[in-house]
Amino acid sequence: MKTWHEIIKPTLVLIVVCAVVSGALALTYNLTGVAELGNGYTPDQLTEFSAKALPEADKLTEVKIESEDESLLNVYKAENGAGMAIVLNSKGYSSDGITMMVGLNADGVIQGVYIINQTETPGIGDKVANNESDYLDQFVGNKQGEISADTVAGATKTSKGLIAGCEKAAELFAKLKGEVLGA
């Protein structure tokens, strides 16, 4: 009988407690709606990202897209018809790349760029891959085939990664415009 009280009973109690806590956590996660946003972005984060990337947008709604392009992470449609926001990874100096949101209006003109995540070299690459930097403003007003920006000495790969990311977003916009915006 010592085995039951010392080993089996505490083990069963621990299993039940773990199951209840796991169930409560899963229920809370689903009730908060975070699971519906894709990539774990909360509504507040999307508002923050889009305020810089697509300032004219009132609210973004994710559009499920089937794409073989591995750099494409998410596509969002502005509810008020202001355009779409594309979240993608672009290769900079760091092997992790730069995760960025590029907002484009209905004509495919870049309205803004927001850096969601980057692991570029501190003090060098993060000078350009930084939301407080004026560097990102160079992309506003550009369309596919017209995107260019000055590269920054010491951050050439990061600069080129941002240029490539904006060009990729404009290219994806051209491919997805009809499906996302219905135009």
From TrEMBL:
GO terms for biological process: electron transport chain. This is FMN-binding protein. GO terms for cellular component: plasma membrane. GO terms for molecular function: electron transfer activity; FMN binding. The keyword Flavoprotein applies. Residues 92-173 form the FMN-binding domain. The keyword Glycoprotein does not apply. It holds the Pfam family FMN_bind. Keywords: Electron transport, Flavoprotein, FMN, Phosphoprotein, Transport.
